[in-house]
Amino acid sequence: MAKAKIAGALLSKLGGLFKKPVVGEALMSGGLNTGLSLMAGANPVEALLYGGADAIASGASLGAVRKLRNKGMQTVTRNGKTITEPVRSRLEVPVNIAASVASTIPVTMLLGQEQGAQGAQTRQVDQQTVQRAVINNAPNQLAGAYMPATLLQNIGLPSNNALMEQMQNDQGPTVGMDERAMARIMGLG
User: What is the rounded average pLDDT of the residues 5-16?
Assistant: First the structure.
């Protein structure tokens, strides 16, 4: 019973926190960023990281603008309810957008990903290399065959894998098997 009261009190406090204008708007901005990241192809964990960073940056920027450009409160009637809300500054939207864009930089650095066209090209090269390895059924065949982060072949130089195969071929058979050992492997001896 006591745990239920504590949980209820905690939920009511959190619900009150979400009703505060800055927190609600910051969470909405973070939610939009999370949704857009998911639609752009980010995995759910990355999308939540981007959305969380956006919510923090948006909350801080909106709070700072409202603190520095305090224009007071206004009373508005909506759907028969009287609501008191802050008078909004024209700087809020541009500052929120700038904070949302800037919040992606630390997350991208944290994840160690390249941005823009270079990042897209690197991911595409990696995907095509994996596809070639799957199609050829030889995961190590392409090791060293291409210059790093490109699909340009090395200048006629053999890959490390080809050099290793050549060395093994030059050595000839390294395991000497007699007929009795071969018969035991086949289950005949």
Answer: 61
